[in-house]
Amino acid sequence: MKSKNGANDREKAILVGVRVRDDDQWRLDSSLDELALLADTAGAVVVERITQALPQLNAATYIGSGKVNEIAAAAKESKADLVIFDDDLSPVQIRNLEKAVGCKLVDRSALILDIFAQRAKTATAKTQVELAQLEYLRTRLTRQWTHLSRQHGGIGSKGPGETQIETDRRLIRDRIRVLKGKLEKIDQQRATQRKNRAEHTRVSLVGYTNAGKSTLMNALANSKVLAEDRLFATLDATTRVTYLASNKPVLVSDTVGFIRKLPHRLIESFKSTLDEVRESDLLVHVVDITHPGFEDQIRVVNETLHELDAHTKPTLMVFNKIDVVHDQSLMNGLRNAFAPDVAFVSAASGIGLASLKEHLVDLMERNFVEVHVELPVSQSQLVSHIHRVAEVLEEEYDYADDDSGAGIVRLRFKTAPHHHEDLVPMLERHGREARVQ
Predict the structure, then answer these.
(1) DSSP labels for 229-288?
(2) Given 102, 246, 319, 372, which is the most exposed site by the fewest CB atoms within 10 A?
(3) Where is average pLDDT lowest: 53-57, 194-198, 353-357?
(4) What is the distance between the alpha carbons of residues 411 and 383, in angstroms, rounded to a whole number?
(5) DSSP alpha helix (H) spans, 313-416
(6) Is 11-106's fold the same as 200-365's?
(7) What is the pLDDT of residues 89-142, one digit of tens each?
(8) Exposed/middle/buried for 417, CB within 10 Å: 0-12, 13-18, 19+?
(9) CA distances from 365 to 244, 336, 421 (A)
(10) CATH level 3 topology of 11-106
(11) Does this model's pTM top 0.85?
(12) What confidence score (pLDDT) does residue 237 get?
């Protein structure tokens, strides 16, 4: 969202929100506060907010005709460059509103897509964002080509407009097909990478955008992931090895933040990134405890995890930024509500990180399987593999009395359920020489 003259001055924006029937006024205000942050992130300055309560939405203009006139007058008076709606608008609604208001219209999805486009740095993120933008644009071509459409009818109006729209639709379909092909290859590459990392327990940091996930990632893994006080600072999943204890390495992934009314097409386009969440062993749900609407943010994240089919994974609730919270009763209430899987930290100052790691170890090992096994000493590769995927508690070698080098090794170890499932056929393959208890 750059200004028309290319200078550093930012576009002026009017925000519009609607409360329908029994919707909560506080939730509307909170959503508009968030929309203002989105506008700021995109590069606009908010000059006015306009809200309306309606029994039902207007199919033609989303809001009432009187409110349309009010927005038009406000846009003219404030010399606004654009009007941003807090919900998705249909192509018909956008066309009608732009005609009546006289300036550019942007709905919430378009704004989020614009931010993603600005923040995309890697080839993967750029491909994912472009696909989402084209999916969004495909149903809105009539808005782009009204000067060629057959809206007036009669001689001379048939053909060219329709042809141009259809040509554009075909070009978009072709480009979407190419992008999906690229993302399928990226999915395959990342699936291979995840398979190669299967020896480690995988932990994904999830949460509302700007909750502090990247800062926590840096604190846990001593890494330098971009951490800004901005919405959607992270688009690409970043994975680092960190140690919860001296002998307990895990893979921690920082993922794109969630937000209310997150466009479904973005979730679909970012499949390869969000697969880190789907295929992780544990989730760390990071919450900004200082945000007045953090409970609503928790609900939004849980709904998104449900949509990703990741809602049943073992999850540690981590309330961040406790260094600026002085209400002990708040933390006591949250501790009781989410016990035992809850931790309180300040990722920026390092407060509570040791306790967080202890909670993660406890959650990680809660369903570990303990195995006692006897193997031939000759199975050294299998023994080495067990050391890589499990925590060996006891190891005893019993060699034969002769010089044959034969003998057995007795192992007692504990490991994650999925590693245990992989190990059982390897151990049983040795028949009588292997015993799993």
Answers:
(1) SSTT---S-EEEEEEEETTEEEEEEE-PPB-TT--HHHHHHTHHHHHHHHT-SEEEEEEE
(2) 246
(3) 194-198
(4) 9
(5) 328-338, 353-365, 380-389
(6) yes
(7) 998 899 899 999 988 899 998 898 888 888 777 788 888 888 888 888 887 765
(8) exposed
(9) 12, 22, 16
(10) Rossmann fold (3.40.50)
(11) no
(12) 67
DSSP state of 157: -
Q: Report the C-alpha gap between 331 and 346 in whole angstroms.
A: 13
d(CA 47, CA 61): 22
Tell me the residue type at 153. Answer: G
For residue 301, what pLDDT is reported?
93
By C-alpha distance, which of 116, 42, 96 is closest to 265?
116
What residues are paired with 243 via a beta bridge?
A: 249
Which CATH entry fits the domain spanning 200-365: 3.30.43.10, 3.40.50.300, 3.40.640.10, 3.90.220.20? 3.40.50.300
CA 378 vs CA 264, 374, 397: distances in Å: 54, 12, 11
By the 8 A CB rule, do 273 and 194 touch? Answer: no
- Residue 217 is encoded by which pair of tokens? 């990632």
* Residues whose CB is less than 8 angstroms from the CB of residue 44 and which lie 6 or more positions away in sequence, other chains included: 1, 10, 11, 12, 13, 81, 82, 84
248-254 vs 201-207, strand pairing mode: parallel
Residue-range domain boundaries for the chain = 11-106, 116-193, 200-365, 369-433
Dig out the tokens for 41 from the structure: 């992130």
Q: How far apart are CA 253 and CA 251, in angstroms?
A: 7
Residue 184 has pLDDT above 50, yes or no: yes
CATH of domain 369-433: 3.30.70
Contacting residues for 418 by C-beta, under 8 A, at least 6 apart: 281
Please check whether residue 233 is in contact with residue 214, taking contact to mean a CB–CB distance below 8 angstroms: yes
User: How far is CA 230 from its chain centroid?
Assistant: 15
